[in-house]
Amino acid sequence: MKKVLIIYHSGSGSSRTVAEILGEVLSRRVEVAIERIRKDYDYSKLHQYELIVLGFPTYFFRPSLAMINFLQNIPETKKPRLVFVFATCAATTGSSYKIIRAILEKKNYRMCGFVEIRGPVSDFALTPLGFS
Questions:
Q1: Which Gene3D superfamilies did the record assign (predicted)?
Q2: Which of 20, 65, 109, 129 could pair covalently with 104 via S-S, beta carbons 3.0-4.6 A apart?
Q3: What structural domains and CATH numbers belong to the chain?
Q4: Is this prediction's pTM over 0.90?
């Protein structure tokens, strides 16, 4: 593996922090790019990476709406793409794994791993709607 793209959504900063730390560690072995999701994201560059890492907060036991919207707009790929997912949460990611996996599989992206990273509660502190 030579190139990894970490794409994240962060409402209160936890997912951004995890993305940055993960990027720092991975960059010791591979080329890493870290990007925040945006409405005008250039999806055409995804094919340049051997692995895509997605990171997002869990709000009310589901992925953030911003990440769901981002993935619903991701184009289908002809060649299967590997995706590793991390979700930040206070207690549990609930149905996040199933929701993200279902969206990815419809577009020929294959989840090769999923991890929950626990931190402080932020569901009520900041609940972003759509993209930030």
A1: 3.40.50.360
A2: 109
A3: 3-118 (3.40.50.360)
A4: no
